[in-house]
Every structure is written in C-alpha cells, then in structure tokens.
Specification:
The chain contains 4 helices and no strands. The protein is an all-alpha fold.
C-alpha cells in the first residue's frame, strides 16, 4: 500500500470514530501528496467530515474540487 493510501485509510479510520479533526489532518496530507488522479477519495472523505459537523461551506469546498476533477477527466462513473 502506498503512503497516500495509508494516510487515506488512517483518515477514514479516524472519521469512522467521529474524530473529525484527526481525520482531516491525515486526509490533508493525503490530498497534498496524491497525484491528481488519486485525490478524489480523500477530497470526498474530507467533505463528508465537514458535513457531519454541519459545516456546509467547508464541505462544498472539497466536494467541488472532486467534482471539478471528475469533470475535467470526463470521469462520469466514479
């Protein structure tokens, strides 16, 4: 497993425990290190972590990045 994948998994683990701040710290690292084609999962998990805390503006910021990436790549399935 890659470093980015490990960071995403750690972030998801924290997220599932309700530790949203810790999750976002790991997801931010994954987003920074991932190549563009591999960022969407971390971006979406980051968005959901903000949504769970009723922070729609922050959630939208990350979801928009994932959406824009998919549109640019014409990836309409993922």
């Amino acid at each position: 497993m890659s470093l980015v994948g490990s960071l995403e998994d750690l972030g998801l683990n924290y997220f599932q425990q309700g530790k949203y701040e810790e999750a976002r710290a790991e997801l931010a690292k994954a987003i920074e290190l991932a190549p563009p084609q591999n960022k969407n999962q971390a971006l979406r998990t980051m968005a959901i972590s903000y949504a769970f805390e009723c922070k729609p503006g922050d959630a939208a910021k990350y979801e928009q990045q994932a959406f824009d990436s998919q549109m640019a790549a014409q990836n309409f399935i993922a």
